[in-house]
Amino acid sequence: MIHNLQIEINEPVVLLGTGLVYKQMPFWCNGSFRPLTISLLRERSHFPYDPPAKKQPVIVFLCGGSWSVMDPTVWMAEMTYFAKRGYAVAGVQYSVSGQAAFPTQIVEIRQAIRYLRAHAEELRLDADRIAVMGESAGGHLAAITALTGNYPAFDNGEYADQSSAVNCAVIFYGPNALKDRAAVISASGNELNPVEKLLQVKDLQSDPALSQSLDCRTFVTKDAPPFLLLHGTADALVPVEQSDAFYNALTEAEVPAEYLRIEDAQHAGAEFFQEEIKAEILRFIEENMG
Questions:
Q1: Which domains are present in the chain?
Q2: How far apart are the first and last CA of the chain?
Q3: pLDDT tens digits, residue range 76-125?
Q4: Which of 70, 85, 268, 288 is positioned for an S-S bond with 226, CB 3.0–4.6 A?
Q5: How far is CA 81 from CA 40, 136, 178, 256, 287, in A?
Q6: Residues 284 and 228 sit within 8 Å (Cβ to Cβ)
Q7: Distance (Å, rounded) from C-alpha 66 to C-alpha 206?
């Protein structure tokens, strides 16, 4: 049976491109190289599949994994919501703790932002409108990335003529007040906890300055971009008090900040990925993209 259908196009086609190399990291005793990539989720024209005619604002997304594992595409299915509403979502790969010590991850992420700006014309990206978003350990890295937009010590690498600054930040259940948590984590009985692995030290408690270097509050100034924090009250992995403390630091510095405290939600719970929450995130980003 044949059916002739007239279909009205109500939403765009969204495609995921992977393997966009933004940096080559030395590997295997500096004898080889390990590429760091960006996966780009964005609206494409219906046919042919060319980049969109209009430049798109960008959400740089950083996934979590206790700083020890990560996959730049793992949350891209959920990010389709934003791609269908006119945003390019760039899933950025960064070095995990077994590959490099902090703050290498921040240096890499900032180079990825500069790469996107340097290639904005060919990728059809709006270089003036970039947000950073991250969840869990990725939220921690996203927060420091946003807070250090004018911090030259983290701007090593290529594309030095481009800015690493972002317009705003969205942080899901991030461990963003680690100085308060470091002693508890170090006393947990693990041979080497995730924070110590990230810093590549054996005893975090022996050097308080190290734990302070990981604490997002260390970098808070009145010049920070607007923040949206999300955290579940039932989070057993990253206690909600981490976001409570970070939000207090932001507001004390008079940084524009919003905080969605999700009742009874656990770490990475489904509550965070409901359309109601995505709509709130979209509103925040659109209000603060400039």
A1: 13-177+217-288 (3.40.50.1820), 179-214 (no CATH)
A2: 53
A3: 999 999 999 999 999 999 999 888 888 899 999 999 999 999 999 999 99
A4: 288
A5: 14, 20, 31, 25, 17
A6: yes
A7: 21
